[in-house]
Amino acid sequence: MEKILELKELKTWYSTSAGIAKAVDGVSFSLDKNQTLGVVGESGCGKSVTALSVMRLVPMPPGYFAGGEILWKGKNLLTIPEEEMRRLRGNEISMIFQEPMSSLNPVFTCGAQIMEQILVHRPVTQSEAKARSVELLHLVGIPNPLERFSSYPHELSGGMRQRVMIAMALSCNPQLLIADEPTTALDVTVQAQILDLIGTLQADTGMSVMLITHDFGVVAELCQEVIVMYASRVVEKGRVDQIFSNPMHPYTRGLLNSIPRLGSRNERLHVIEGNVPSAINLPDGCRFAGRCPFAEAQCREKQPLLELCEAGHEVACWKAIDSTYADEIKSRLMQNII
Ligand SMILES: Nc1ncnc2c1ncn2[C@@H]1O[C@H](COP(=O)(O)OP(=O)(O)OP(=O)(O)O)[C@@H](O)[C@H]1O
Ligand SMILES: [Mg+2]
Q1: What residue stretches are annotated with the ABC transporter domain (predicted)?
Q2: Which end of the chain, N or C, is less packed with Cβ atoms under 10 Å?
């Protein structure tokens, strides 16, 4: 497998009047060529800031990189000049944002915005860029693409706008597509269509995909690898089958338990009690300790780091790596006590 992206101990912090918000605080993971990585975790865990960091689109100030590296094909994106970053962005690496409306410009037609993206990065003529834009609109499943080329964003439905965003993101055949909750604002049928589309495009083009989502169902369908984020850090990572069949972190299990099961409609939906700690005021020890049914004194004192628990599967939990407790966790997992 060829590593295309590697984050090493990335720290993206914000200076705020209330203190330093450690939005991403020592995040490490890598993504192979042709692979789809799911990034899951509750709201405020640092998923979007991680993605924006890779694009180097974190507003600075108040944001700043407090440490670490982002290696793109071995090159540290945090130290290359902005001009070089601009050549990569929207070209080799592109992103579909969480809010499609705020990233499409309301005063230009959809077609003009896709064309612009192509013209910035490719040595093509206006008419070639137009032809490619119409082709992209067709590719992402927009009916009457030639007509839609001249539509303004507000003239389209949410699902269609999201497709335009995807067309824009794909316009230069990226090697990495970052999709930040690409379907949250859409209704279920459209969600399924858009996710199918991303899956098909990934298979056709061989690009790598980093897919941020709240939804484990989406992960199961599209991803090979998954990282679970909690309070600005990665608490577990592994192959999708490992995370689903053998979740080691109590937080991961809590997330998995909150998926409604088929035929269990009357059962109370399991949610993890409590809240994610604020990025401004993170606890010293394990950041999940305050919500964890297994937490002991050592968990509150010292932060656990990711450790291998089986080949390809890492967890940051004092209990999970201790074999006696690992057994206890497993048996409690079976009984659904967590
Ligand atoms: N401009 C900012 N100034 C201060 N703190 C910020 C800023 N942007 C983000 N943060 C903080 O960074 C943390 C991570 O935010 P992020 O948007 O990455 O979460 P997320 O995992 O994407 O959540 P969601 O699922 O809701 O999209 C949050 O605690 C947030 O308050
Ligand atoms: Mg987000």
Answers
A1: 5-256
A2: N
